[in-house]
Amino acid sequence: MSLFAPKFDESVIVREAEAEVVGRAPSTVRLLADSSATGGALSTQRVTLTAGADGAAPHRHDNSAEMFFLLDGAADILSGDEVLTAGPGDLVVVPPGKPHAFAALPGADADLLIVLAPGVERFEYSRHLRRIALGEATRESLLEVQNLYDNHFLSSTAWDARRRGAAPGETV
After folding, report:
1. 164 Cβ neighbours under 8 A, 6+ residues apart
2. φ, ψ for residue 123 (rounded to 5)?
3. What is the dihedral of CA 22, 106, 96, 154, to 10 degrees?
4. DSSP state of 38
5. Which partner for 78 in 10, 101, 107, 148 could form a disulfide, CB atoms 3.0-4.6 Å apart?
6. Which residues share a beta bridge with 92?
7. Could you tell me the CA-to-CA distances from 71 to 79, 84, 87, 112 in Å, in that order?
8. pTM higher than 0.85, yes or no?
9. 67-120, pLDDT tens digit by residue?
């Protein structure tokens, strides 16, 4: 086991009013701290989804674990081949290499704190997604930057079945 020792000298403090906000309903992302601010220790953002909105399609990170902490509402979270329903205060940590995705449940908003550790420069990735939403870039452009952001898309039968309408908490 190797130990990663991040290198930064000052505490990272991000006031809510100062956080950059990318997007708007149905998916709002507040950029909190990127890898460069935390000496590589982590990257973190807060994602707010309106009822039933998709957060992220199935993907994996080869070099980082991803943590999902549900601040409020209800969300489906894919972890490997299992789709979990999370409520306020629930925590899911997905190890590197394991497929995952997230979305608000139909009929419920979701407010999530998301942390990647070790960190990856993710702010520009979120801005890139916004450019796609605005029609300024194509979805295919994500394939060109997947290695840069350690974000590799894949398919998931379990996720597709859940998002097609399986009941929350139902095994798919």
Report:
1. none
2. -60, -45
3. -90
4. T
5. 101
6. 68
7. 19, 16, 8, 5
8. yes
9. 999 999 999 999 999 999 999 999 999 999 999 999 999 999 999 999 999 999
